[in-house]
Specification:
11 strands; Gyrase A, domain 2; 6 helices; 30% strand; 2 domains; Alpha-Beta Plaits
Length: 213
Amino acid sequence: MDEMTASNPVAESAFAAALKEHAAGGAARIVGGDGSTARVVLTPVEGRAVLNLRTVPKPVRDTFAVVLGLKLPTVAWLSAADADGRVHALWTGPGDWLITCAESARPELETRLRGALEGMTGALTDVGHGFAVLNVSGPAAVDVLAQGCGIDLDTSVFTEGACAMTALARMRVVIHRLPRGGGYDVYVARSFADSLWHFVTVAAMEFGYRVGG
């Protein structure tokens, strides 16, 4: 660990305390349920970069399509991904998106996005340090999230690729349903990471859950 990482609290997992407590009881254990099968998997997501792009939606779609390898969604509840699934654009409001990728890819992507923004009305902000991301997957994932969320997350309504800024157990979150059975990524302010963890572990207790790697 280098000096910068050691002195930067943001570099530590937002769920570090919760994971340490869980590991003390056996990281591979199944909590709740009948003790034999975990129907929920909780996986803290590390190394996720998040950029907030704000600009006029319609005239710039083609401009950013080249940079991002995808067309920015302009309809509520939609996201888009590049061909490799490494870059995602989550619609969070008119002319407002969260662009996500691996932290290792962020510097180059951010530079290209800022270049594309030159001469346009808009802004690009690195907000990754402000988010904690938890992936909730497994056959009972929807049942867990539905206990604290007012929108219909049924797979027939909240289809693959859907995303929404909403409230979850009174916390403001962005929920993104990943394709190919990847579960749901829940973005929450880092200061609420412990609260999110508490909510999902309590909600998942009846189904049985384990912590993913």
